[in-house]
Amino acid sequence: MADCCTPRKKLCWCVLLFFLVAGITGGAIGIYKWHYSGLNRWHGAGSTADFQKIIQERCDTYTQTIRPGSRSRNCQAIRQAFMSAFISKDPCKATNEDYNSLINLAPPTVPCGQQVFWSKTKELAHEYAKRRRLMTLEDTLLGYLADGLRWCGEPGSSDLNVWSCPDWRKDCRTNYLSVFWEVLSERFAESACNTVRVVLNGSLENAFDSMSIFGRVEAPNLRPQVELEAWLGNDTGKTPSDSCSGSSIRKLKSILDGRNVKFRCMDNLSRDQFLQRS
């Protein structure tokens, strides 16, 4: 019996135990790195932390405080439909249809003549809309819920990917964040009527960008007989770089002419002048 506890045998058992522990630890680390590298493979930032909680809280605030007239909206159903649109799915294979159920629960429609579109002028457009009691896309229920958030999932997983999400330019255009805003923007533009407005940045060389959401989605989906007023506001301290007679605005007018949409344009306005005159 004494032989089993000799120093030599104890050393052998210690060596064996060391390699066993090292193997298990190495395997666990390898599995973690493999899992992490899969979730971290995209070039964009990951899903917003506490995404579901934020959606629920924003919906409650919007329907109960900001626009009490929308109290009939079911915030729990909206949150569930939002999650169902993208969770457990390939984050680069989003389709317009994925968001149908969500948008049908809260269509981005506003009273006639109250739409304000914008491109590279978010802060200015929101200030203008607030002063004039008009509405940007982010003032609709779904726009308010999603503003500033990011989200994506992974095939076969019920969790959000908080490590990374696809970037529109570097990974894929058909990611769930981009497609959401495109679908919502299309519905917002299609519902426009009477006179609506777009706020563009006159400090840029091309105030109208045909590849922006306004250029690709909203302007081409305005209905005939709508009148669009374009306001070219300049950044504080900057001189105008584009005008109503510039090539980019002529391109916008060409798109609108093809839709039988009336067009008016005002330019060379500072931020304060725009907010006072518009």
Note down, in words, how this protein is organized.
- It is a single chain.
- This protein is α/β, with parallel strands linked by helices and 278 residues long.
- The protein contains 10 helices and 6 strands, in the order H-E-H-H-H-E-H-H-E-H-E-H-E-H-E-H.
- Strand 4, helix 8 and strand 5 form a beta-alpha-beta unit.
- Mean pLDDT is 90; it is low at 26-37.
- InterPro entries: ADP-ribosyl_cyclase.
- Its EC number is 2.4.99.20, 3.2.2.6.
- It catalyses: NAD(+) + H2O = ADP-D-ribose + nicotinamide + H(+).
- Residues 1-26 form the signal peptide.
Which features would summarize this protein structure in a list?
single chain, 278 residues, 4-stranded parallel β-sheet
In short:
The protein is an alpha/beta fold. The protein is built from ten helices and six strands; from the N terminus they run H-E-H-H-H-E-H-H-E-H-E-H-E-H-E-H.
